[in-house]
């Protein structure tokens, strides 16, 4: 399969667009609530980029799993889940420990791919047969 036509790539691009819009909206809200500063900007940017990367890794894991026998696929997906969980925890931990990155921006950004999927389903035009 041509990598440019991969469903994972196409969905990740859509998630990246939606996440970017939500990060921008969040930063605009920060401006109006007087919490707009460099740590907040970095928190939202790091969280947004990581959230899109995490979504991509999930898609690639599913794509790879579909090529495996069931027993191996289950072990593989469990391992990949824990890797994604650990790296998400690590990113949040860094947000708490590093003074020039706001952890709140990171944590909020992690839900943006889910919000993007939710809103894209609501506004998706019905496909005609």
Account of the protein in words:
The chain has 129 residues and is mostly helical. Helix content is 78%, strand content 0%. The longest helix has 28 residues. 19% of the residues are buried. The mean pLDDT is 91.
Low-confidence stretches: none
What overall geometry do the principal axes of the alpha carbons give?
flat
Query: What is the count of β-strands?
Result: 0
Separation, N- and C-terminal Cα atoms: 25 Å
- The number of helical segments is 5
DSSP helix fraction: over 70%
Q: What characterizes the major β-sheet?
A: none
**pLDDT average, as an integer?**
91
Whole-number radius of gyration?
17 Å
Sequence-ordered SSE layout with sheet pairings:
Blueprint: H1 7-32, H2 38-65, H3 70-97, H4 103-109, H5 112-123
